[in-house]
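Provenance

Sequences were taken from public entries as deposited. Structures were produced by running a predictor on each sequence independently, with no templates supplied. The record for Dipeptide transport system permease protein DppC (TC 3.A.1.5.2) from Microbacterium esteraromaticum is shown for reference.
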Amino acid sequence: MAARASAPRWLRALLSSATGWFGVIVVVLLALTAVVSLFWMPFDPMLSDIRGRWATPSWPHLLGTDGTGRDILSLLMAGARTTVFVAVGSGIVATIVGILLAALGALTARWMRETVAVLVDILIAFPVLMIAMMISAVWGGSLWVVVFSVGIGFGVSIARVTRPELRRVQQSDFVVAGRASGLTNGQNLIRHLLPNVAPVFIVQLSWSMAVAVLAEAGLSYLGFGASLTESSWGLLLADLQRYIGVHPLTVVWPGLAITITVLGLNLLGDALREATDPTLSRRAAQVHLPEAIA
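Predicted structure for Dipeptide transport system permease protein DppC (TC 3.A.1.5.2):
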């Protein structure tokens, strides 16, 4: 009980919802699978065994094998590393780009704010997948291309949503008081502005990471993402979908992994927004206040 009482309020609120629990479980399992795959996997994911191809789920191949005899469970575990790398990498790039553009578009001189607003409107008109495909056509398909193209694309989207929130919070009394006490724009940004726009930023970032997983799978499926020497759920799906009429069960596993991961990231973002948004907490308190008085 003492440990639970000392936990932050937002963490208690996050774990009190079913969606928050589901998102946390999915993200933790994904991270654990990626870490465990660095040290142990049932089989070498690139080891082919022609005599054991298209094995049904049984021991020792718990999820069966593909057309070359590779263990599907090992392929999924190795692909989890790629998924974590792309989600975290694109999330970091999107965070840097989003905060930088939002700050320039909210805290600088008028001419800079208008320039950034026009630049964001221009960049957001280009679909992320199209940008990634164009970059891949020039530089070749790789996970780094996916990370930077998806990160920059969704960083622009984050900046477009976060910039108006920064402008709104900037007019608050506590920000004005901080400026009057001698805080610079950068100090105000870190101490007051970013914490107050965190709920909006978090849900956008989690959605961006979820779509990054889909983008990596889709680009790898089309041949613009991971190379053939790397493990990817998208590549595995592309290999197996040709035999869906003969061995439909094998296609289920990578598709299910992608679906659950994207769903978990989206639900975790929604739960975090509800747990960290002070306006939602105040609204909930107002709803329960009459009941408490009664």
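The chain has twelve helices and no strands.
The radius of gyration is 23 Å.
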